[in-house]
Amino acid sequence: MTRPHKRGNCLHRADLARATGCNLETIRYYEKIGVMPAPPRSANGYRCYDEAHVARLSFVMRARDLGFSLEEVRSLLALVDGGMQSCAEVEALARDHLEDVRERIADLRRIEAVLAETVSRCSGRDVPECAVIDALAADSTRNAQPIRPGPKK
Amino acid sequence: MTRPHKRGNCLHRADLARATGCNLETIRYYEKIGVMPAPPRSANGYRCYDEAHVARLSFVMRARDLGFSLEEVRSLLALVDGGMQSCAEVEALARDHLEDVRERIADLRRIEAVLAETVSRCSGRDVPECAVIDALAADSTRNAQPIRPGPKK
DNA sequence: CTTGAGCCTGTACCGCCTACAGACCTTAGG
DNA sequence: CCTAAGGTCTGTAGGCGGTACAGGCTCAAG
Known about the structure:
Two copies of one chain form a homodimer.
Chain A: H1 13-20, H2 24-32, H3 51-65, H4 70-81, H5 87-120, H6 131-137
Chain A binds a DNA duplex (30 and 30 nucleotides) through residues 2-6, 12-14, 23-26, 28-30, 33, 44-47, 64, 69-71.
């Protein structure tokens, strides 16, 4: 055994971190913002976690992996904790999030297209003309107003 | 004319904001972090911008729209400012960024697939069983270690 | 006894802004 | 001339989602 500190069947912070793959400090952070409950403490003041905490933090981590914001995670947890009369609410939350994800994908694909097209026009030679710079410098596609638009009340 | 304040042919912060679509406060922020140069001031202490500032900030905004980080923007600007002997360096930067964008898309598509599949299994009825919750609670796919892995090292 | 690991707390920092407080200046209207 | 409205200035706080470090305990092993 390399493990120090006797523990009365309780998991310390590092154990919880290892069990869930969560960063050590993040556990404390989640406690501070109320995503994880403040666990009981053992006599020395150490946090004392159990399997329920492992399950909850794993839940949180999986939700985060799927891109749910902490606010969304909080909502999910509230629905789970609240006896969960309704799968429908959870589903709505997940569908909203799915919509967000799809929008982000669409945004990135637009960016990808512009970027790929631009890069493809690069000569690759060491000359002062640069397609990328030109594309960025060209006053096209951006949504700016003309300067001093005249009497605009 | 609705515009207050006489200006000796100089653009004030709000003018620059309007001309570029940039947020007013962000201009000050970009100056603070060195992405925009500190402009000359007129007698009253107001920042005094010109067309060159409009061009530069537009450049920055377009790069940001394409998802370049401010650090990357700084590099692009340095290459532009440095006489630009080499389009190759700019191209490399843009290609790297394109790679990043593609990876982010791939990540999001994986998330989308899981989310869509999970949501599709929802009953939609007001019942305690919920495919989303089950999926999040199931101790599958995440990269955690077993608790107390015994003598390790 | 000393060393080292692990834990505790609080706080600062990261990127990228955004917003507000409190002061000053300018201009138009009465 | 005075006032009100709006622009500008500065510094600083907040927000997301953490991450990291300093300074101080406790604990177990050598």
